Amino acid sequence: MGSERRDPPFGGSVVFLLMNLPLGIAAFVVLTSFAAAGLGTAVVWVGVGLLALLVLGVRGAARLERARVYALLDRYIDLPYLPLPAGGQKNRWKGRLKDPSTWRDLTYFFLLFPLGVVEFVLVTTFWSTSLALAGLPIYFRWLPGGAYYFPSDELRWLTVDSTVEALPWAALGVLFIALSVALTKALAGLHARVANALLGTTVAQRRRMERWWEDAEEKNLVAG
Fold it and tell me: Hey, which bits of the chain come out as E strands?
């Protein structure tokens, strides 16, 4: 089962969330390309090989994703796969395709793209706003006109052209930094729970694994 709920490390959360968008784009492109090509050429059997590669690739990528979640967010996700049946490749492939974990892995990587978009927008928006406000007393003098105009140069509701005037904005920026830290860790924790729900074991799978191992132990005892 997955590790207990706790706040993920801040540094790992930032790296993890910023990685999700490019990884999500890559996953979406590969999945849609292989699925479309495989289904489109399944009649001539070429597509069957492509779909087989897709299944193996998704299961392998899911293992790497569990390792990434553990390395950056300190959340361990148990492998949910049942041992493959004996009796040749046909039975092994039936085992892979009947395993719900294969389809849950596929669902996770399809969802990684929209999740990555939302997480990237929120993280970059909050942190760019926070750092811009906090650093205003330092850099306002190098802005065009030597001042900061809110909300824009054309619409000047407020003008900041001295360090004293910039200090309240810097205080607001410090508050936003605290909110950004909390948001970053909350988003990473939420993503870790989604990953655990889709890439980890369910209660039914754990029971099936326990029964499988019990049956295997009984067979070994009988054989002995």
Answer: 148-151, 156-160
